[in-house]
Design brief:
The chain has two domains: 112 residues, Rossmann fold; 137 residues, no CATH class. By secondary structure, it is α/β, with parallel strands linked by helices. The chain is globular, with a radius of gyration of 19 Å. Strands 2-1-3-4 form a four-stranded parallel beta sheet, sandwiched between helices. It starts with 7 loop residues before the first helix and ends with a helix. Helix 6 packs antiparallel against helix 10.
């Protein structure tokens, strides 16, 4: 099943044609790890499906009465951290602890990730987090003031040198100008900077880390974001005695489907 070609109605039909319990997740990035979770959950009647995006999964949730099989929805908290969560949610939908799935992966794997970086790379990571949070706060403030404002974060990749130049610790002037950047309220910027693990879009955090690896010299280890996810997941599995966000999520899925 593709991640971006099916409508909510088509996904509902797919679920209803199946006899399996269903977990709906947003897209391919989430699915990569949830497939691993699926293998570790001892339930042969469980199927995890991607919806191709947050808006699609929420549209399906609005039509959940049409579903014939028990279905669990999992979506990103996104900007609800700033504007408040919908009050119509029930126990059949789970949201990420941080802004997105990537935030939760970073929180679980922060020590591992920083262990793969040199001291100077960790220092640059910290500077870049502060720099990106500065611009990101401006976008968030616009959305808080006008809920119809679409931040279009998916249009921004920090791996693009025209947005974040190679070896730089500042976003390019052209990028900030194109986005109409103006400083946001100090309190908001400080809150996001201090609590970036939870509030800054997780894809940006991993793009920064990915950029650090890409810019390493010849002969030095470089990791893709997919490889970093694998490293984090393997580490989590090897520390069964420790509570991680991902192990909590696994337990939530099992509990939901084990309830009468």
């Amino acid at each position: 099943m593709g991640t971006d070609v099916f409508t909510p109605e088509e996904i509902i039909k797919t679920i209803n044609r199946s006899s399996l319990k269903t977990v709906l997740v947003e897209g391919k990035d989430d699915l990569y790890i949830y497939r691993k979770l699926e293998d570790d959950i001892e339930d042969s009647e469980l199927n995890i499906l991607p919806c191709g995006g947050r808006s699609t999964i929420l549209k399906i949730y609005e039509k959940k009465d049409e579903l014939k099989n028990k279905t669990l929805f999992i979506c990103d908290s996104d900007l609800w951290h700033f504007t408040g969560f919908p009050d119509y949610f029930s126990d059949d939908i789970l949201t990420t602890n941080g802004y997105s799935f990537e935030n939760d992966m970073f929180i679980d794997g922060e020590d591992i990730l920083k262990g793969l970086l040199s001291n100077s790379e960790v220092q640059r990571l910290n500077v870049l987090i502060k720099e990106v949070s500065r611009w990101y706060s401006f976008e968030v403030e616009k959305h808080i003031n006008d809920k119809s404002y679409d931040c279009k974060f998916s249009d921004v990749t920090l791996l693009n040198d025209s947005i974040l130049a190679k070896s730089s610790t500042t976003l390019t002037t052209q990028f900030l100008t194109d986005r109409g950047y103006k400083p946001s309220k100090k309190e908001l910027t400080e809150n996001i900077t201090i609590n970036f693990k939870k509030l800054l879009r997780g894809k940006f955090i991993f793009q920064i880390i990915g950029k650090l690896f890409l810019e390493r010299g010849i002969g030095k280890n470089k990791y893709t974001i997919g490889q970093l996810f694998d490293i984090i997941y393997s580490s989590i599995k090897s520390q069964a005695e420790k509570e991680f966000l991902l192990t909590v999520r696994k337990r939530q899925i099992e509990t939901y489907f084990n309830e009468a």
